[in-house]
Amino acid sequence: MAEVQTTYTDNLAPAYPGMIANGEIGNRITRTCEDAAGIGFGKAVYRGAGDHGCTATQTLVAAGSEDAGNTGTGTVTDAPTVSAGAKIGRYTLLLLQTSATGEYSVHDPDGVLVGSGNIASAFSGGGLAFTWANGGTMTIGDKAYVDVTGNEFLGITIAHEALAVLPGADADEYPQYENVPILTGGAPIWVKSGANFAQGNGVHVAADGDFEPSGGIGLDGWDFDNSGTSGDLAKIVAR
Fold first, then answer.
1. Which of 21, 24, 93, 164 is such that its CA lies 20 to 30 A from the CA of 187?
2. N-terminal to C-terminal alpha carbon distance within the chain
3. Pairing status of strand 143-150 against strand 128-131
């Protein structure tokens, strides 16, 4: 059997990724790891392809459309580009003036203003990139939409101290097909930070899986519960 640990320090670490931080009540679910590379402790996971699966990768796609009641006939990019920061749901574009190059506002699925763009010019913001083209008489009040779909965030993987390490596998991770305990909220959990953070900052997941206060995939409702610098262990919570 593979050795989990062969060296020890004089002092125990105060915490480790995936460790529940205190005795608060937290909601937990279990899913099956679908990733061939495994999923580490204290990592964000998303709904998998199977009915009971989870994966460490979120895949989002977007589709543009126009309101049937528009006066203008301008169309939005059929398949807008999606990048980090996009939210699942409908983005609403509202034309603010009657003009072939008029300004329009962009609100995310939660109704938060993302930014503004202009007809016939490329827009980029909120994790989306697209163009609302000119057509007919583009009239104030015309609307367009960008619908983002994909596998939603489930929660943070909880560490399992007694998990056996299989030959060829890494310690501190769930191998493919293993049951994965996931914290969906309630109690704080320890994770690895990838940037400086402060108590109360919102939580985002970077491309490497570390947690940061901005950029990457935003985790709605989750906040940092302590302060520290890049590389420190951080407590995050959704209450």
1. 164
2. 40
3. unpaired
